[in-house]
Amino acid sequence: MRFTVAIDGPAAAGKGTIGRAVAERFGFAHLDTGLLYRAVGARMLAGERAEDAARDLRPEDLSDPDALRTPEVAQAASKVAVIPEVRAALLDFQRAFAHRVGGAVLDGRDIGTVICPRAEVKLFVTASAEVRAQRRMDEWKAKGLSADYDEVLADVKARDARDADRAAAPMVAADDALVLDTSNLGIDEAVAAAVAAVEAKRPL
Ligand code: C5P
Ligand 1: residues whose CB is within 6 Å? Predict the structure, then answer.
């Protein structure tokens, strides 16, 4: 059975949490596509051309996801993500993952619009920039790290603007996506809405 769930939206809106929960519930494979751009961004920070890094991305580049989940790498990822050659180089891998037998959940920015325009289920998960910045703050705190709210908020807004305003595959909700605003929605309710959307489309 091939069945694709496309989840898009800005950083810290809850895409990853919802994606993992849906994948676990239905036994689908899950791909956080942001990690691919982060891995390319990290190699750019290490001095490589982004286009070359994207063309030659290796499994070991993704082997330490925590090392890629830093603010510096996030900003680098959103810079390399505006380059059409980088996006093109990562396309086939994402499409192959989406079409794997057994079902797949992909989360990112352009999954429902560009990577999998025919996905069976499309969700656009969003929340206000302030709520998302506070979530990032809480995550840092839980890891024992400190952060400045105004800086985190500015980072969130800068990345939103770069992702939404770029010419290549901008972040936008697909016309047929179900929009989930998690500003005032608990994670359990958001997951329940996502699960219901999959149930409604899943072959019996
Ligand atoms: O989702 P995450 O915050 O890890 O993504 C990092 C960056 O990678 C995003 O800000 C965005 O610029 C880019 N990205 C993208 N398309 C995707 C996933 C991520 O452009 N499908």
Answer: 11, 33-34, 37-38, 74, 77-78, 81, 108-111, 159, 163
Average pLDDT, the chain: 96
Query: Quick check: is 204 in a domain?
Result: no
Tell me: the pLDDT tens digits for 5-15?
999 999 999 99
pTM value is 0.95
Query: Going by C-beta distance under 8 Å and a sequence separation of 6 or more, which residues neighbour residue 78?
Result: 37, 41, 159, 162, 163
* Cα R_g (the chain), whole angstroms: 16
Q: Which two three-digit tokens encode residue 154?
A: 């500015």
> Domain limits at 35?
4-199
Strands 29-32 and 178-181: unpaired
Q: What pLDDT does residue 85 have? A: 98
| Within-domain flag for 69 | yes
Calculate how far, in angstroms, residue 204's C-alpha sits from the geometric centre of ligand 1. Answer: 33
Q: Report pLDDT for 202.
A: 86
Ligand 1 pocket mutation pick from 78, 115, 157 by most atoms within 8 angstroms of CB: 78
What separation in Å is there between the alpha carbon of 170 and the centre of ligand 1?
A: 10
Section 112-131 average pLDDT: 98
The minimum-distance atom of ligand 1 relative to the CA of 8 is 21
Domain with residue 98: its CATH number is 3.40.50.300
